[in-house]
Design brief:
The chain is an alpha/beta fold. Helix content is 24%, strand content 31%. Helix 1 packs parallel to helix 5 (150-169).
Length: 290
């Protein structure tokens, strides 16, 4: 099948690679324009653009590039923008969405499933509609969330979604008989800085879920401390206190404590929590956190 592929982050790459491996003619890959990273002026391509170059596929940065591609269908995986009706009227599209629709429609379905404490999630292949993630589903794959991080879960769903996508395109039954979504929709709002902020007024379990998203942080005084790994603990610590016991450090929450395992102090590199404790020089081994 002659296809257009629309995607941007690394999670979209398994689907692109699977389409090529299955023998589909990917006529064009559309992704976001190159962006500046860091303080320099050098432009960096998106992960999908890098993959397209490796696969010798033509790349465009605008939906206008679809007009001359003469494709039968478009495949959308984390493209990062809504596809307008005028495009969908010309090019039907399938979307690889990382949730069990209609739960977690929107921008951050993996992270919202983790934060909500969902038992399972999955990936669906749906027909794209102008409205947000409302299309009928052609195939679905499920997985337990357990203690997986957002990065681990995203990679798992990316691989499962790639295989499901290839299966759908290989089957007229899957393609022609999608199932309408049913159930109460929930919406995966975009992540903000506060999504990653661990607070002492929240439960230890919720704090741990925030840490599993990556980039979680709290404040010791006016200094930011990134918390890279932690575990819930039975160590008794007053709410809002950080206490050191030997070489271990514990954050007191509203219902228990979190033992820090790996951290990154502001202006420093990532390190084991016990190494941070040795150099932190906390007075009496106690500090306030927020």
């Amino acid at each position: 099948m002659r296809l257009a592929f629309l995607g941007t982050p690394g999670a979209a790459i398994p689907s692109l690679e699977a389409l090529v491996a299955a023998g589909h003619d990917v006529a064009i890959v559309i992704t976001r324009p190159d962006t500046r990273r860091g303080r320099g002026s050098t432009l960096s391509p998106s992960p999908v653009k890098e993959a397209a170059a490796r696969l010798s596929l033509p790349v465009g940065h605008s939906l206008k590039d679809l007009e001359e591609a003469n494709v039968e269908m478009g495949i959308v995986v984390a493209y990062g923008a809504m596809i307008p009706t005028r495009i969908l009227d010309v090019v039907p599209m399938l979307n690889v969405h990382f949730s069990l629709l209609p739960r977690w429609r929107g921008a951050a379905p993996v992270e919202r499933a983790i934060l909500a404490g969902d038992i399972e999630t999955g990936v669906g292949i749906m027909s794209l509609e102008p409205t947000l993630d409302t299309g009928p589903v052609h195939a679905e794959r499920r997985t337990l969330i357990g203690s997986k991080t957002a990065s681990e879960l995203t990679q798992e769903l990316a691989l499962a979604g790639a295989q499901a996508l290839v299966d759908v395109l290989a089957s007229n039954d899957f393609l022609e008989h999608p199932v309408a979504q049913s159930g109460e929709p929930t919406y995966a709002e975009k992540l903000t800085k506060e999504t990653f902020h661990i607070l002492p007024t929240e439960s230890a379990e919720l704090g741990l879920r925030r840490i599993r998203l990556g980039s979680a942080f709290c404040f010791l005084g006016n200094k930011r401390l990134r918390v890279l790994e932690a575990q819930t603990s039975g160590h008794v610590v007053p709410v809002g206190e950080l206490r050191v016991n030997g070489t271990s450090a514990f954050l007191g929450t509203c219902d228990g404590s979190l033992e820090l395992l790996r951290v990154q102090p502001e202006g420093s590199k990532a390190m084991a929590a016990q190494d941070w404790v040795k150099g932190a020089r906390l007075e009496n081994g106690v500090a306030r956190w927020s």
